[in-house]
């Protein structure tokens, strides 16, 4: 069991699901960079997924394309398998753990509190990146959202908590937030447990937490925070399915470029982001055209060698 | 033009659309009661609707069933018609105005600032009830939501304001709130104009405002308030369609039984509601069965006279 008194050191990536894998891969690119870029050794944990090797192959291909040195799949498929010390030991030289989407209750049931789960926590504490998408994001929290209905209005017994890995204390992480209309279920959990900070992560968006408290946002959507410390609610007495009273919650919607202090629950700042990948891509295309023109002007060039040349140029630009 | 310095006296009903018209008509029943019950004289204004007499007939039937004395339809179909003093004069002896759903820009275009629109405002100031559902709710506000996209995450230029009747100052009223996932568009308006209080009303739910500031909630859903006074946003500079920063908004989700002070923007209280119509109905059914059993035991009774008897009994119970 890792020592809970030592501060967490690694960066956490809570990704809201459906992160781009082919174009504008901002979220996964940021993950690989945080994991060490060309030195990244990433353990993909597909336990939550009902897909077999397919999901591993997708992430292996994306992480390799983004320049990671090594990608291994570690898939405990039962609590007994997750108790295998040999499996847990394979995390020792990884720079990152990435948990796929699927069913977070499978992660909670098979991993939390096992040798493998404890090894993930230890990996984080020694400074490695730990993250996941969808189910793999929710499991990071101490109190994990298990499931729930959709809809904007919070209702009694709309959602349930289970036990997560505890890498982010005092926070409950929901995902696919805007896309599946999950205000209601997040509010219902915070209404029942106002000490929790509710965090809803949109698709193709990551809540990136460093040093345990500094939240930054990457990607195309937003991270929504509901701070329930001062709220008044009737969640302790309302009838099942009745809409819940939630008065006085503080709401923060944070797009890319935002930074937020999770300890004081205040905005640190916002910069209108470099995130404008469209501008970057347009500039790159303009550069390509300019080079092409000058090269054609200088001498003949074959289409194949030009394409190779372009690929080299793009790769250089991306890693910068 | 009514005197803007005198306080508004009548009760406002902002209904979130799709209010029940056949069973459990809590919202429309509360409207008729506020309009004077058996003394209610209600002007139905179907201007927003693209349906013709059908929509009038629906409300005429429901209001009559709920005991209103008189229901008249007043339908200005252009700005010129709305300037007709004879039409405006017909509001003089009404105890309530009810605006149907449809397109609120039609109400803004045809009514706001006309003789008829001013007469609606004057009707409210002399103590009559003014309300509406869906489009008819949005038009009540000073700053009216004109249209917008759906989704939980606020985005730049997602929604637009137009000019409403001004019966509720400093508030923008959205409707079908939970059902159409409208957090984003309401937040985007409040982010642009943090002085506004954003009000999102669920379907089959009413925000009932008396004395200009006291909000009470009736119906099956909730009224969501977004208080932007202390928020930080980048709405003045963000790129079109980019998700918006909204940090530090105060959020209130108010189900039936809640009361809220719109002037101080604080919760007054909440009682776990009489709203449990199901319990009332079950009890009424049990009473019916008990009476039936005792009546059958005492003497023979014809089905017709029994049905009449039941109707009388139910009506008595409802108005109590």
TrEMBL record, chains A, B:
Q: Name one Pfam family in it.
A: Peptidase_S51
Show the catalytic activity: [L-4-(L-arginin-2-N-yl)aspartate](n) + H2O = [L-4-(L-arginin-2-N-yl)aspartate](n-1) + L-4-(L-arginin-2-N-yl)aspartate
Q: Please name the GO terms that the record assigns under molecular function.
A: peptidyl-dipeptidase activity; serine-type peptidase activity
What Enzyme Commission number(s) does the record list for this chain? 3.4.15.6
UniProt entry tagged with the keyword Hydrolase: yes
The active site lies at: 134 (charge relay system), 176 (charge relay system), 203 (charge relay system)
Name its GO BP terms in alphabetical order: proteolysis
Which UniProt keywords are present, listed alphabetically?
Answer: Hydrolase, Protease, Serine protease
Q: PANTHER family annotated for this entry?
A: CYANOPHYCINASE
Similarity annotation:
Belongs to the peptidase S51 family.
The job of this chain, per UniProt, is described as: Exopeptidase that catalyzes the hydrolytic cleavage of multi-L-arginyl-poly-L-aspartic acid (cyanophycin; a water-insoluble reserve polymer) into aspartate-arginine dipeptides.
Protein name per the record: Cyanophycinase
């Amino acid at each position: 069991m890792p020592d809970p008194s030592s501060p967490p050191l690694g960066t956490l990536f809570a990704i809201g699901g459906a992160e781009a894998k082919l174009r504008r891969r901002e979220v996964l690119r940021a993950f690989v960079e945080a994991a060490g870029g060309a030195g990244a050794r990433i353990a993909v944990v597909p336990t939550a997924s009902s897909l077999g090797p397919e999901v591993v192959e997708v992430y292996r291909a994306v992480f390799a394309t983004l320049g990671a040195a090594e990608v291994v799949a570690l898939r405990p498929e039962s609590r007994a398998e997750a108790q295998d010390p040999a499996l847990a030991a394979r995390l020792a030289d990884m720079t990152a753990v990435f948990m796929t989407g699927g069913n977070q209750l499978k992660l909670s049931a098979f991993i939390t509190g096992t040798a493998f789960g404890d090894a993930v926590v230890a990996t984080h504490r020694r400074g490695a990146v730990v993250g996941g998408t969808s189910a793999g994001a929710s499991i990071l929290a101490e109190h994990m959202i298990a499931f729930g209905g959709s809809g904007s209005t919070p209702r009694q017994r709309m959602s349930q908590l289970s036990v997560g890995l505890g890498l982010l204390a005092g926070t409950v992480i929901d995902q696919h937030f805007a896309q599946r209309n999950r205000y209601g279920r997040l509010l219902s959990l915070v209404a029942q447990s106002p000490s929790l900070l509710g965090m809803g992560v949109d698709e193709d968006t990551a809540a990136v937490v460093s040093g345990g408290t500094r939240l930054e946002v990457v990607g195309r959507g937003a991270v929504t925070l509901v701070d329930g410390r001062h709220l008044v609610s009737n969640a302790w007495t309302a009838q099942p399915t009745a809409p819940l009273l939630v008065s006085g919650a503080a709401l923060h919607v944070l797009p890319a470029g935002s930074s937020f202090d999770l300890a004081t629950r205040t905005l640190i700042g916002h910069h209108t982001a470099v995130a404008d990948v469209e501008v970057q891509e347009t500039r790159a295309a303009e550069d390509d055209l300019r080079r092409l023109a000058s090269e054609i002007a200088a001498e003949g060039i074959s289409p194949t060698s030009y394409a190779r040349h372009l690929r080299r140029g793009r790769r250089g630009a991306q890693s910068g």
